[in-house]
Amino acid sequence: YPEAESEYLVSYWDFERLKEAEDEELATIFDLFAAGAITYEAAMDRLGKIDMSAARANRQLAKLEKAREKSIKLLSKEDLGKLLGAEVITTEGYKEYMLHLNYRSEDIDLLIKLFETGAVE
Asked: What is the residue extent of each domain of the chain?
């Protein structure tokens, strides 16, 4: 190859290696954040070190946060009933959690009455 073309190819290969390393670091940061292993602030700090724009980083982390929220496991109705029966949680805590599980307030009140009368353990 002529010298100019050789220099271009070497520069291009260097660029590709750097881009590949950056992509791997991005994937690592996003995986750690999605798994809850690092905080939002730590992820932003690490992204800043590899020169990712704050706007792009915020968009990506927001997507990952939504995905993480969807994968959070919640206690079941049965688990909550056991906790309420054992007086580990209050009726207010039970009601709040059951609302979060999309139970209607009226139905939750009926379940609480069952627990209070001892009909359910």
From this structure: 3-70, 77-117
